[in-house]
Amino acid sequence: MMPTHSRRFAGIRRFAGAEIHRRRGVVAVKVAILSVVLIGFVALGVDVGLMYNARQELIRATDASVIAAAGTLAQAGTGAQAEELSRAAGAECAERNLVAGDGLTLKPAEDIEFGQAEQPGPGLPFAFATEVTPYNAVRVTGRRTGSAPDGPIRLYFGAIFGRLFTEYTWQSVAVMKPRDIAIVADTSNSHNNDSELRSYQDTDINLWEAWSSTFERGDWSSFGDSTDPRTFGWGWGFFKTGGRGYGSQAQRYLDGDTYDPNADPGLLSLPYAASPLGREDWSPAVGDYAALQSYLLGKPIPYAGKFDDATSEVGVLLHDTAVFPKRRTNWKNRLAVVTGYADWDSGKPESAVPTDPKPWHVVARPGASVGNGDDIVDDFEVVWDGADRPAIGNRTPDVMKALWADYTTYVSSTSRDTSTMLLGNSDFRFKVGIKTFFNFLLDRHPTNAEFPEFAESDEQPMLAVKDAMDSLSSTLSAERKDLVSLETFGTTAVHRVDLTDQVGSVAATLRSLQAGHDDGFTNIGGGLRLAIESLTGPLARPRSTARKVIVMLSDGEPTAFETFDENGDITVTSGRSGPRLEQSKDYARAMAERANENGIIIYAVSVGAAANQDFLVELAGKTGGKHFHAEGEIEEYAAALREIFSNIADIRPVELVQ
To answer: What string of H, E and C letters represents the secondary structure of 554-597?
Structure first.
């Protein structure tokens, strides 16, 4: 018989076991119930995550599509073809972006719309109006619905809740922002270097085109009796004979490999002996001097057959008979007379034959001769206003005389500062003719105050800049509310045109300017300063939506800088080397940094091999902008400049506004 306490513990064990089994059953039931619930929550979480991700992907795909479509439309312009390109770009971009594992497929004709988006006021949302022209915005509708090409988004566990799909639609709007563009153009002297003889060994200079275009368009017709300026010189009798004029090298460009100044019939060497004991005879027994004597003997009336006599006018002109103190003056005046640029009232006796007309040397001066009859061509004996030597345009005889004096210094000097033409080739020294005289004017008298005719000359690279500006103007769109101003800089920076939607007026103003228009150094900092003032100062347009841009062009590096006194008056200091050069660079850097502080982007454009590209890259980089460069022969860089300006016009900022 089991003890009582044993039976008691056995019963307890049976009860505990039963209780455990009962509880296990309850837990199993609860686990089963909770598993269903848990599975439901997991399924719900997966599908909710899918739905959230799909919605975000749809937004991103639609945003990317509208940016692509608007960016393409900004570059393509207007018209059906531009719209087609825009829709194609938007659809392609959408297809590259996955939504729930599939690329977003659009119906371009329905889902990509063009119109205008305007902001009613600061801080207010943009309102999009469909099909309102001119277009400045694109709207893309991204769909994952039952009617969309990709259909709705299938859920993984939606069947548990009686929902197999979900649908989303999203619209995005991108606006092509208008731009306030300040054109900053270099009008320093160097913008005609590629038309000058100094550059003929480096590039195919277009001196002929510059001369021809100036003659044809300016008031230069009084300088000859032919419609072809290649056949005569600027009223210079000798260069009207024998087809000399511009010379046989009248091809469009001078070939640096084959052109020889010493063999150019359009140039006459009339050297000067600087030594007190030296004589410089232009002997008729030598080369072109025979032709020169022949010209003088027939100009226009023979003088008793004695023009070849050593004491006749011709004899004196061809042989150096001056005493040393007057040697240089005599050389300069002899040179003017023998070329026909001036007359000589020698004071020598007239022919003893009563029937002979008066000699050629007094024809241009009515009344009695004032010459002293010696063998020196004195200043007071030179006649600058003869009937067959009319002035250039309306310039006075005194101006012409001063030009000639400057020219003779130019062709005779060995100084790099005085005769920069000779940097090209010292063989041009003492060479007289249209090439060197016109080159002298381009180099030493390029300003508008002195020779406004050069504004219409084909001087390079100035002409290439003008043509590029025409290209930019034709690409910019007044319809899309672009505004453009014009600033120029030489030594002095000048504000030319206020911000305007008449973009063609900016190109027209630039075309009226010339290389060295005001003065000659390169004040890049001053040009940038004026551009910043045009874009942000009192003359700026209050357009919060506009992107502010500077397009700055130069063919060199800064050689001038500005300082301001307490009254705000400006002093410009210039220098091509040493501390002044560095101060000029630092001033330009400071202006670029100021532009960046004002949210202005600089696009810097350089032209020519001599341009300091690294410095212009630095300036543009300070604002997050870009540098462009054009070089090569004239036709090459002219085409490159047009393409660069066209590309800049296409850099139209696009902003997502919805």
So the answer is: ECCCCCEEEEECCCCCEEEEECCCHHHHHHHHHHHHHHHHHHHH
Per-residue confidence (pLDDT) for residue 356, from 0 to 100: 43
**C-beta contacts of 162-169 below 8 A and 24+ residues apart:** 166/47, 166/51, 166/54, 168/54, 168/55, 168/58, 168/143, 168/144, 169/141, 169/142, 169/143, 169/144, 169/145
Provide CB contacts within 8 A for 526, sequence distance 6+: 489, 492, 493, 560, 561, 562, 572
Please state the rounded mean pLDDT for residues 85-98.
91
CB atoms within 10 A of CB 242: 13
262-276, 299-313, 351-365, 434-448: least confident range: 351-365
Residue 21, pLDDT > 80, answer no
Q: CATH number of the domain at 180-188+458-656, please?
A: 3.40.50.410
The whole-angstrom separation of Cα 506 and Cα 508 is 5
Task: Taking each helix axis as running N to C, give the angle between helix 578-597 and helix 524-536, from 0 to 180 degrees, rounded to the nearest 10.
Answer: 20
Report the relative pairing of strands 137-144 and 165-166 from DSSP bridges. Answer: unpaired
Assigned token pair, 511: 């075309």
Q: Burial code of 103-119, b = ≥16 C-beta within 10 A, e = fewer?
A: ebbbebeebbbbbbbee
For 11, other C-beta atoms within 10 Å of its C-beta total 10
Domain ranges for the chain, please list them.
47-175, 180-188+458-656, 206-214+224-446
- Place 143 in a pLDDT band, splitting at 50, 70 and 90: very high
Q: Indicate the pairing of strand 137-144 with strand 168-176.
A: antiparallel
* Confidence class for position 604, pLDDT limits 50, 70, 90: very high
pTM exceeding 0.90: no
Separation of alpha carbons 563 and 574, rounded Å: 11
Q: Tokens in use for 381?
A: 């004996």
What percent of the chain shows pLDDT beyond 70?
Answer: 77
Q: How far is the C-alpha of 393 from the C-alpha of 386, rounded, in Å?
A: 15
| pLDDT number for residue 299 | 59
Judge whether 111 and 141 are in contact, CB under 8 Å: yes
Residue 24, pLDDT score: 59
8 A C-beta contact, residue 174 and residue 138: yes
Q: Are strands 600-607 and 547-554 parallel, antiparallel or unpaired?
A: parallel
